[in-house]
Design a protein that fits this description.
Number of strands: 11
Largest sheet: 7 strands, mixed
Radius of gyration: 13 Å
Shape: globular
């Protein structure tokens, strides 16, 4: 099982990034996908999630209307489109695959929002 995030980097406030997560080693279409982040000295927080595989999505209030989670089952990919980025969005971003009580995590990708 592998989840590999990419697309992180340095962006100015107000800018956009799209994170990608490539999944392999499991039946991707059966798993609900989500994105979490962890800033230095803070706990990991869930920012965007599918409530079921390919189903309704939910967002943390801090990213509502700025971030969008999406998936491509044909490519075994999940994405996080991040717009209007703020310095407080700076964190390591992780994707997660969940099937009932089974969950897999990626290794994370750094996003830094700074002038």
């Amino acid at each position: 099982v592998q989840l590999v995030e990419s697309g992180g980097g340095l962006v100015q406030p107000g800018g956009s990034l799209r994170l990608s997560c490539a999944a392999s080693g499991f039946t991707f279409s059966n798993y609900a996908m989500s994105w979490s982040r962890q800033a230095p000295g803070k706990e990991r927080e869930l920012v965007a999630a599918e409530l079921s595989a390919g189903g309704r999505t939910d967002y943390a209030p801090s990213v509502q209307d700025r971030f969008t989670i999406s998936r491509d089952n044909a490519k075994n990919m999940v994405y996080l489109q991040m717009n209007s980025l703020k310095p407080e969005d700076t964190a390591v971003y992780y994707c997660r695959a969940r099937f009932y009580d089974l969950a897999y995590w990626g290794q994370g990708t750094q996003v830094t929002v700074s002038i």
